[in-house]
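Reposting from the mailing list since nobody answered there.

I have sequence plus structure tokens for a pair of proteins and want to know whether others read the tokens the same way I do. The first protein:
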Amino acid sequence: MELSHELIRNQLSRIVESKDFEASVRLRSFLTFVVEEVLAGRGNEIKAYTIAVSVFGRNAKFDPLLDPIVRVEAGKLRKLLERYYLLNPNEPVIITIPLGNYIPLFRRNPNIQEAQKKDVVLPSESSSERPASTKYEEKKKRPLVLIIPPDNFSNIKEITGFTYGIAEDLLMRMDYSELFDVLFAPTIAAEGGADPFELVELAAESQARFILHGRVQSTDSLLRVYVSLTDASNRRRIWTERFDAALDRLDLLSLQDEISAKVWAQLADFFGVLARLLMQETTYLSLDSIGPYDASLLYGVWEVTWDRGNFERAKEALERNLQHEPYNPVLLGHLSRIAASDFQQAINSMENSLDMGMDLAKLAISRDRDYIGGHIALAHSLFVRCNAEPLEEALKIILDMPEVTPYAQSMAGFFSAMAFNLEQGLEIIERAARLNAVQPGYHHIVPFFYHFGRGNYDAALKETLLLNVPTNAWDPVLRILIYQQLGQQTLLRGARQRLFELAPEFVKYRDQFLKGLLFRQERVDMVTDILHRAGIG
């Protein structure tokens, strides 16, 4: 039965008036525009250009290749619609924005139709029949970040709307982080500045651990914006970023986008400010007390250190928690990467690790296709298997996803560099670093081989100092390559001794170890030849 326009408009009204949509004028306008265009018979005219001009106020020169605003906001809108229907499963009409275009689709809720046929009541919010992903969200012990618009210390009339826009953008960008939950507190901001003690009290009342706040100042020629993150539990300021803009060229909307994008990248990235703090805290927990959330952080500890002990700890924590939540996409994605690393690092502690990594990655994606960690896990498994064509497609999917994090960009750059083109992959890594400079140290293997292949051994040696994986065999292996080429025999002996201290059976598993990271056979042969000349197998 065809849905009436009245039924669709009633559904639209309930959505845009809901609490989640209340925080974003942009997304309310976006959804309303595309729905009304379809109802008016103009669905085929809905393009990025028409949305940018009609909804976001872009001018006639708008180019979607240069300005990603529509793609980014569409990603936010899709996720917010999914959240709305997750929290409101009994809505009669389901409105979706399919991937690949911006034309909304409308359909009747099949759950309601089925319930009417069987004369049964749908599960309540407390029912155990809810999807596993919902129960996972409840069980996570994620910290809460209180987002408060920056205080206005300027005398510019439009700044109050600008500060609220920053807060709204950050709310939307950060609301789907796997690292923390967010809470918006718009009424606390005040001209002349909010009382810092009030902010701490508000955080305590709302059970928020962190406060994201700031201030705006101006002179006759300059607008300056500070954004800060404070740990309310000890009132310690963890992070601050400053943004300056000349008043004679001031574009508040562009500045708002710049600030929210940079703050999001610094804080919400898998190796961002908050993640690094929280990962450090998990190192003091016993395995018995580690739940799903902390288990995912332990995976990050392994990735940043490449330490065997951290590998075993993360593996056990992930396996334990998956026994209770077998369809948790985050846990599946991280355990997939543990399995891929088991083969890649020649740890060989898991049976059929290559197949296991692939299966877990596919399962993670099937549970949540928008979870970028699942796609990274799939790319990791394809990389370790040296499956070039499907790897290239997997990397394209990652880089085309909305709100791709600096970490995801950097991972895609790493796989791309080692598998296909060092220079192009390095460009992606460097682009990610401009948003968040802190990424896994082993990504410096890419510039190492870039410089090493050009005979620039001094530059390559500097990259080994940034590698920061002192308990992993790759640390001495790279130094051995340099010292052998430079003929530095004393340093070579020390690096060779360190290699066999870390990996006594290195020669036995050398080919697996090298192929797992170097991908290309010609690079494996080159490294093998240098190691042989250095007296290693």
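The second protein, same order (residues first, tokens after):
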Amino acid sequence: MKQGLSLRVSQHLALTPQLQQSIRLLQLSTLEMAQEVEQMLDENPFLERSEEMAERETFGLEQTDVPVSAGEQIADASVPEVTASPAPSSPDSVSASTDAAGDGDGLEGKLDGATPVEESWEGDGTVEIAPDDSEWGGDAPARNSGSGDGDDSATAADLARAPVSLQDHLHEQARCLRLSEEDRAALYFLIESLNDDGYLEEPLAELADAWLHLSGTPQLVGDPQDSLEAREALTQRLGVALQLLQHMEPSGVGARDLAECLRLQILELRNTAEARAALAICGQPLELIAKRDVKRLCNLCGIDDETVRAALGLIARLEPKPGRRFVDVERNVVVPDVIVTHAGRGFKVTLNPDVMPRLRVHDVYANAMRQNRGGRDNGGEAGHAAMQQRLQEARWFIKNIQQRFDTILRVSSAIVERQRNFFMHGELAMRPLVLREIADELGLHESTISRVTTAKYMATPFGTYELKYFFGSSLGTETGGNASSTAVRALLKQFIAAEEAARPLSDNQLSDLLREQGIECARRTVAKYREALRIAPANLRKSL
């Protein structure tokens, strides 16, 4: 093989640490973003949370509250003229490079072969306090510091509003029973073993073994006969405690399966022919109840058709999950990133100040860096360079957070402008929209729009939706236009809600109804949309 030297010119992509951080922050959800901020506050001494109100920095979001175009002047003088998209930021604004910092795999075509990129946080090497070191997120309310005269009353109010768990509710009832210490301990153990729905999923024998292991009972390592007797005795005690548990409120708690849960609730009702029939039906395979197979249930239970239908109606009114009303729904609350409100004849898009962290560079430490520029006193040149890099990291973190919210705001404003009919008339007026349309309008890449719309939520007059909700494929119409799949699903819900209970609409009939509205939608597509809406097929929707 002959060796030689050759010169070759090529282009390649290089992601700086700043760009990598910007990409990562852009795709984080609100909760993940808050965790990232807390972690950075712990790791970087130059970064601190500001509790004081301050003016927005010069590089900040000058267009945080951007009204969306309504096609005409807003009547309200307090609302500025409606624009189609946020006004461009200042030349120093990092929003001008949103696309570059917002997507990693969407940077094709933006190559840096001419200008090499040095992967460093050092920036320009200055340690002066720049104007953009000031507080960011000044519009956000300060977090309570935990001091003040009203703290005790606020805490008491929070405790009063705190939901009661299923276990707490059952323990309160158990305290009213006169039990021995052993029986009370067994009842406590069963209550703590319930799942969120109020079911006891593990058999009593396994629970007895778990209790013996937790208590460290010596019989387990002694004579096998003694160990077996200990297990049997404890299983019997748990069986007695289970009887007590299953007589507590809510009715059906402590059941091992759905059939037992239904039987426990039926036993609490009056002893009528309907209740006795329902009790007999619950002893049959639950698939027959789900399918409402009246004929087979009549044959298996020896009950006439009318009684079976009445019993099935009674079973339908029972609660299959006794612990449902004790579930803490607060942990499922979605905090919106963007809020859309009416503004005159248009709509106003604003960032939610509650999710915007208020951060700034620590003035004391930054001043110390400026005064000790040479670094001769503490740690020498190497220590000074390391601290300078941490300072630059803090600055970039603040800018990347601001850029994240700026991008979210721009995308949200474009979505509201495109889906203006939805905000006026609801989901039936939703128009087809794909990521490329927003990307082309804002000059961003589709991957950037995908990151922005994932796990980000918008509060609208009709509820809170993920930003991806406003994007949907199109279906053809007889007039040659397009209808959004979201609007078609809403139309299907309307058709099903208005159907006769005794004669529900099949997927073919729903397809025909859509065709009458000028929308071409095949039966399989209707079935797919119906399943996505979690609507049962016609045979299961049929009223008894």
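Reply #1 (J.P.):
I read it the same way you do. Strands lie at 47-49, 66-68, 338-343, 346-351, 359-361, 457-460, 463-466, 474-476, 482-484.
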